[in-house]
Structure formats: C-alpha cells, structure tokens
Amino acid sequence: MPAQTLHERAARAALAAHFTPGQLAAELAEYSPAELWDRRVRSDAIGRLARYRPLGELAQAELTCPFIIPSDEEWPTALADLGPACPLGLWVRGRARLPHLTASAIAVTGNRVPSEQALTRARGFATALAEADHTVTATLAHGVDSTAHQAAAETGRATLAVLPRGLDGVHPYSHAPLLSSLLDGGGAAVSLYRPGTPASGATLKASAVLLAALTRALILVEALDHVEAMHAAETAVDLHRPLLAAPATGDARSSGNARLLDAQLALNSPDPLLALALPHARVARAGDVADGDLLLAAVGDQSPDYFSTPYTARPEPFNPSCGCGVCCLVIAPGEVVVLSNGDPWDSCDPWPADDHLLIVPAKQRPDRPVEE
C-alpha cells in the first residue's frame, strides 16, 4: 500500500507486528511510520510484507482491543525514557483508565515458583501500596505477580497488568478469571503484542522492559538471578527508577535480590513502609537537602548507588576540624554540607554541595521514619 494512503496507526501496528523498535529506530528518525512501512515492503525480497494488509489486520485486531500510539492522549509519557526502544504502540484493554493508572504505578514482581515468605511479602507490599492509592502493576504470571494483583484487588483498588502475549488470552489459562476481575474492577491490561500472539522468551523479556518503564518504582519481592523479573529490575536501574528489593533469605530463590543488594543497586526493605515512599523520590543537590528528608542513594551518571540504610538528613555547616575521622579527610574546592552527624554511623556525612542524591522530601515521607 502506498505510504500516502496508510495512516500512522495502521503503519505503526504493521511495523510492530514484524520488527522491534530497535530495528527501526534509525529510520524512524528520518521517515514517518507510513513511509518506513512502504520502504520495508519494497525492500522485502521474499514478499512477506507485501502480503500483509495493515488496515485489514488492524481492524481485525481492534475487535479485541484498541491499539494506541504516542500521539494519543492515553499514551504513557514515561515510555519516552526508553529512547530508541520506545514501543511503536500498545494494545490496551481499559484504554480510558490507563493515564490514571500509570500516574501512580508501582511494579511488584518476582518468581513464578516463590517461597511462602515471598508470597506473604507480595501480599503485604501490594496491600499497602493499593491502600495508599498506588497502582499495583505486575504480569499476571504465577507466583509473586498474580498474588500481588489478587491482594490489591481485595482492597477494592484497580491494578495494571503487563502481559507478554496478545490480550485475547492469558497464560496460564487458569488466570483468565483474575484478568476478567481486574478489568471489571477498573483496571487495565497492556501488551506490546497484537491479539493472537503467544508468549515466548522474546516476548517475556520485552514485556519485562515495558513493566519497568511504565512504573514509577519497582519492588523485587524474590527472584532467582537471570529470570524475567530480574530483567525488569535491571531495566529499572538503567532507567533510574527507584528499585526496592526484599532482603535475600539465603534461599537460592532470592539470589537475584542478593546480587542487586550486594551491588547497592537496590534499596533493602523487608516491609512495605519504604515502598510507600518510593513514588515520591526525586533527585536533589546535596546543598538543597532539607532537614527531615530521607536519603536513599547517591546519584551518578550511571545509576543510583543505594545506601544500605536509608537515613534522615540533618544538615549542618561543614567543619574541617571536626574530630569524627571523616570531615578531616574532605578535600573539596567548593561548598561542602554535612547531611548527618552520627546517624546512622558514628561519623559525619559530608557531601560536596553540587553532588546529587535521591531523596524523599520530608513532607512526603511515610508517617514513621524508615530507620526507626
């Protein structure tokens, strides 16, 4: 079909059905989706794309659910953080609810075959988040994710499901009633894949990226290293989304949590209290940190370097003659501020004023301080 007769929605759906965003990023910077589809059709030597009918295929797929694109009002603006990997579009059930749900979305994810402790934690995190009006977001998979959906639903709050397959079905099939109740309860489901697409290793990995990008923070309840939940957590790190990991238990099923915590890539929290603070986290200059702010991490060019124990800021002037054993080591050409004196350590915590920190402002913290 000539580019000038193909509208953007159909062109994006056609491209998404055959290519990943990364395969098209360079050309999309130069051509419109319709022009790019036409170019790809003309360069397809085997004729596979020429046999595809974008308008008819889109119309048939939208009998199940609509396909939204970046120019739509419902499009989640947070996906722009993916840069060239930003999806061409999303298939959605519950389209009108999506902007409200994604505005406060927090992912709760983990193993498909979790420990009993992980299931208890998943219920606790999801319940607390939902009761605080955050949108619990997960994949509807067995284990931690479906438990999080169910716990949030029991509070009467809506949840958001990110599925690694077409939205005409669910895997496992036994979760079909859960998906139906999620949608009936004001929630929504999204997918990168048109109806009729089965789950695969590739769709699971891409959907893990989508889960992290759609949410304001991610909670890893329990994960074996290298499972899909870990890919979501690592994407959260790359996107500078706040990441919380429940403490590793020594069980092999929490090996992913252990690695992230050991590398200071995630905040360590055994209960939901810190999770309630994560959506309010923001980056601030050390010199602008105020009394009572909760300090979570140092922020460099690569990713946050989380503190093993988040603590409360108590700013005071820098005194190089201080006898704490740390202040005397500071050699800085500019302004330095001491953000805490003896809390949580026995020494001061001096920072160059222009360094950046991930904080939760005092007025947006949970009712009781995390370290108490």
- Main sheet: strand order: 1-2-6-5-4-3-7-8-9
Strand content: 15-25%
Task: Tell me the span between the first and last alpha carbons.
Answer: 65 Å
Rg measurement, Å? 23 Å
Helix content: 25-40%
Structural class: alpha/beta
Itemize the secondary structure elements and their pairings.
Blueprint: H1 8-18, H2 21-28, H3 33-43, H4 54-61, E1 67-68, E2 90-93, H5 98-102, E3 105-110, H6 116-131, E4 135-138, H7 144-154, E5 160-163, H8 176-184, E6 188-191, H9 201-214, E7 217-222, H10 228-238, E8 243-245, H11 255-262, E9 267-268, H12 273-277, E10 282-285, E11 294-299, E12 304-312, E13 316-317, E14 336-341, E15 348-352, E16 356-360
Parallel strand pairs: 3-4, 3-7, 4-5, 5-6, 7-8, 8-9
Antiparallel strand pairs: 1-2, 2-6, 10-16, 11-12, 11-16, 13-14, 14-15
Helix pairs in contact: 1-3, 1-4, 6-7, 9-10
Explain the overall architecture.
- This protein has 372 residues and is an alpha/beta fold.
- Helix content is 31%, strand content 19%.
- It is built from twelve helices and 16 strands.
- A nine-stranded mixed sheet has the order 1-2-6-5-4-3-7-8-9, with helices on both faces. The protein has a four-stranded antiparallel sheet with strand order 10-16-11-12, with no helix packed on it.
- Helix 1 crosses helix 4 (54-61).
- The longest helix has 16 residues, at 116-131.
- The chain is globular, with a radius of gyration of 23 Å.
- The model has no long low-confidence stretch (mean pLDDT 92).
